[in-house]
Design goal:
single chain, about 90 residues, alpha+beta, Alpha-Beta Plaits, five-stranded mixed sheet, about 25% helix, about 40% strand, globular
């Protein structure tokens, strides 16, 4: 299966609404690697790597986010896969 890696920035009301927790659960359920973190500008950054089809499913989820979130835009940049197979994590920096 083809692997894919993307770096995303999610804009809208995405901090303080459990976005990171829900993203971690969703990504782990899809067996994706990567991480999620809040950014100082109020956006959330998400890095995803795994099977291309599963990355696409997670990208679709990011457009809705957690139940309390109001996603306005998701910017996506594709990168070369690094072969990362670590568990998806929440970063606090």
């Amino acid at each position: 299966m083809a692997r894919k890696r993307v770096v995303t920035r999610v804009e809208g009301m995405v901090q303080g609404v459990y976005f990171r927790d829900y993203a971690q659960k969703e990504a782990r359920g899809l067996d994706l690697s990567g991480w999620v973190r809040n950014r100082p500008d109020g956006t959330v950054e998400v890095v995803l790597e795994g099977e291309a089809e599963k990355v696409e499913l997670m990208l679709a989820w990011l457009h809705t986010g957690s139940p309390q979130a109001e996603v306005k835009e998701v910017q996506v940049t594709e990168e070369q896969p690094l072969g990362d197979k670590t568990a998806f994590a929440i970063r606090y920096n």
